[in-house]
């Protein structure tokens, strides 16, 4: 008696179907994890940009002698050099000196003139930071 060895066509089709389901699930899992990683990285970058901008502004206010707040255009001039937002980039003195990207709003408020207390608010698309700063020497 002669026995044929091998798989039938139905067995091969069933195996390919199961294999394709496993590949599709694996691909979706990898794609979803890649999506999450890119979103988290973008979020961390935006938060980091806000911190860089806030640290820069705080240092300039603390050490500044003459601070002029222009409320109508959101510009702050410290010792003759302006800090402002243009095209969603925080800039210092001239357009080419960029401090931090992805900044949508920047405001400085004088809270108490006698003590030199200022409130700083910096906003990006997702986050906003607000803090109080006191000038040195007051």
From TrEMBL:
A Pfam family annotated for this UniProt entry: N_methyl
PROSITE patterns cross-referenced by the UniProt entry: PROKAR_NTER_METHYL
Stretches that traverse the bilayer: 7-30
Keywords (A to Z) from UniProt: Membrane, Transmembrane, Transmembrane helix
InterPro entries membership: N_methyl_site (IPR012902)
Name this protein carries in UniProt: Prepilin-type N-terminal cleavage/methylation domain-containing protein
Organism: Fonticella tunisiensis
């Amino acid at each position: 008696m002669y026995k044929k060895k091998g798989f039938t066509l139905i067995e091969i089709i069933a195996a390919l179907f199961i294999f394709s389901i496993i590949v599709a699930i694996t691909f979706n899992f990898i794609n979803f994890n890649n999506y999450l990683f890119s979103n988290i990285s973008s979020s961390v970058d935006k938060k980091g940009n806000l911190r860089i901008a806030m640290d820069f502004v705080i240092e300039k206010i603390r050490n500044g002698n003459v601070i002029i707040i222009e409320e109508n255009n959101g510009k702050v001039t410290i010792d003759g050099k302006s800090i402002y937002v243009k095209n969603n980039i925080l800039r210092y003195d001239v357009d080419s000196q960029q401090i931090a990207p992805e900044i949508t709003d920047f405001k400085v408020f004088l809270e108490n003139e006698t003590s030199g207390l200022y409130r700083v608010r910096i906003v990006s698309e997702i986050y906003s930071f607000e803090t109080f700063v006191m000038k040195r020497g007051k």
